[in-house]
Design a protein that fits this description.
Its EC number is 1.13.11.-. The protein is mainly beta. The chain is 4% helix and 41% strand. The chain has helices at residues 3-8, 82-90, 233-237, and strands at 20-22, 26-29, 37-44, 60-68, 71-78, 95-96, 100-101, 118-122, 125-129, 136-138, 145-148, 164-165, 172-177, 186-192, 198-205, 216-217, 221-226, 229-231, 243-245, 251-257, 266-270, 274-284, 287-295, 316-324, 333-336, 342-347, 359-364, 374-380, 386-391, 397-398, 402-405, 415-423, 428-435, 445-448, 459-463. Bound molecules: fe (ii) ion.
């Protein structure tokens, strides 16, 4: 490829305009035969160009890598949300901005849900998630869209893209923000048991309206971070940013026992920061320890007057939050564990909410310009110390790494790490399979696609039964 063409294509954000089935993919190296199942990934892939639409609100596209007996196949499909179907019929974009209908859109449709953030499997259902809407059920083989899933009418409103599945009970714990309508301080909280039955659903008020992307769950507690990317209807109505960075509001984290109620929430205070993603959290005597990827200033969102935040400060680093539950203080501690820029932290999910000794995240190459360029992987121990570090060739980018255990009873961390890699020079993607405890050796196998998978958000592995 010509160098000029490479130079022009500096990122892998643009959508791909097709759906495909690729049954016999070329494999470099040897795909472990124990890997039997499907890696599902989700991310924005707008069906139509829309002026001013934030990358966050592009239509969700699923990418499924099916692995079996050392062979691999691939399928991708858009998620047919009501918005996708209406725009498909109209042959054009009907929504822009942050999911707001365009002024000249003629359809009688208010639901701008895009289902583009995560894809999880719980209680026999594959669910595409996006935090402003209910889960969308997907048929696991064909990737056909079955529509919104509201748990027999027991769950309503927004539903986080980052629910947690308790590895002991199989319970799914979730929350929603903007639970009383757009840009309101109300949160919802609920749980679904391992059989898919709703066991709890309630609402409460947070200290202020904010964007709450993820939360924290341990064996006995649930924690709600209210961090100052604030939401304001007043700003939105006057044409200013609906979400903005307001550090003066401070950081709050509400701690609730899982058996308690919202009126028992204890609010802890901390230094202003933003966190999109939590790696893991656990209880340690009277303390709760939570490892997160903390930004000193919010990325991607401006100050209330529209000025951008400081790029030097709007990068995430592995950080430990500690909460003292003995009643001595209402402050929580925030301690960076590494200086490396990283995002998309994952663990061996069999340790979710429990003490874990292995974690992984995607990282930037410190020698390259940073933003949008997650181009390596880090393996850390239970205190954030690096056990391994792998960097891709300059220019390539990597997705969130997903851990797959070698077998049901394998030791924590014994298995593989699956990540989709964009090869900048060839402008196509590989599914890279690493030995999870030896990422430094590089991929043990590459499943090669002829096309690229745009940089997306989250994915999960669903093992064959
Ligand atoms: Fe996320």
């Amino acid at each position: 490829m010509h160098q000029a063409a490479v130079a022009e294509r500096r990122n892998n954000i643009a959508p791909i305009p097709f759906e495909a089935d690729a049954p016999f993919l070329k494999i470099v190296g040897e795909l472990p035969r124990e890997l039997n199942g499907t890696l599902y990934r989700n991310g924005p892939n707008p069906q139509f160009d829309s002026p001013g639409a934030h990358w966050f609100v592009g239509d969700g596209m699923l990418h499924a890598f099916h692995l079996k007996n050392g062979r691999a196949s691939y399928r991708n499909r858009w998620i047919r949300t009501p918005k996708w179907l209406a725009e498909h019929d109209a042959g054009r974009a009907l929504f822009g901005g942050f999911g707001r209908k365009l002024p000249d859109a003629s359809v009688n449709l208010t639901d701008g849900g895009v289902a583009n953030t995560n894809i999880i499997f719980h209680a026999g259902k594959l669910l595409a998630l996006e935090e402003a809407h209910l889960p969308t059920e997907i048929e696991p083989g064909s990737l056909a869209t079955r529509g919104y899933h509201n748990y027999h009418g027991r769950v309503a409103g927004s539903f986080t893209a980052h629910p947690k599945i308790d590895p002991v009970t199989g319970e799914l714990v979730f929350f929603g923000y903007n639970a009383a309508g757009p840009l309101t301080p109300a949160l919802s909280y609920g749980s679904i048991d391992a059989s898919g039955k709703t066991t709890r659903f309630e609402r409460f008020e947070a200290p202020y309206a904010s964007m709450v992307h993820d939360f924290i769950v341990t064996a006995n507690h649930v924690l709600f971070p209210i961090l100052p990317i604030t939401g304001s209807m007043e700003r939105a109505m006057s044409g200013r940013p609906p979400y903005a960075w307001e550090p003066d509001k401070g950081a709050y984290v509400g701690v609730m026992t899982r058996s308690g109620t919202a009126k028992d929430i204890v609010w802890f205070r901390g230094e202003a920061c933003y966190v999109f993603h939590v790696m893991n959290a656990w209880e340690d005597g009277d303390r709760i320890v939570a490892d997160v990827m903390q930004f000193e200033e919010a990325p991607l969102f401006p100050h209330p007057d529209g000025r951008p935040t400081d790029p030097e400060k709007s990068r995430a680093r592995h950080c430990r939050w500690t909460f003292d539950l003995s009643g001595n203080t209402d402050r929580f501690q925030q301690t960076y564990l590494d200086d490396l820029t990283g995002e998309f932290p994952r663990i061996d999910d069999r340790h979710a909410g429990l003490k874990s000794r292995h974690g992984w995240y995607a990282c930037a190459n410190p020698k390259l310009p940073m933003f949008g360029a997650l181009s390596g992987l880090v393996h850390v121990d239970g205190n954030g110390r690096r056990l391994g570090h792998y960097l891709l060739p300059a220019g390539d980018t990597i997705s969130e790494p997903v851990f797959v255990e070698r077998s049901k009873d394998a030791a924590e961390g014994d298995g593989w790490l699956l990540a989709v890699v964009w090869r900048a020079r060839e402008n196509r993607s590989d599914l890279a399979v690493f030995n999870a405890t030896d990422i430094e050796a590089g991929p043990a196998a590459l499943v090669q696609l002829g096309h690229r998978v745009p940089d997306g958000f989250h994915g999960n592995w669903v093992g064959a039964v």
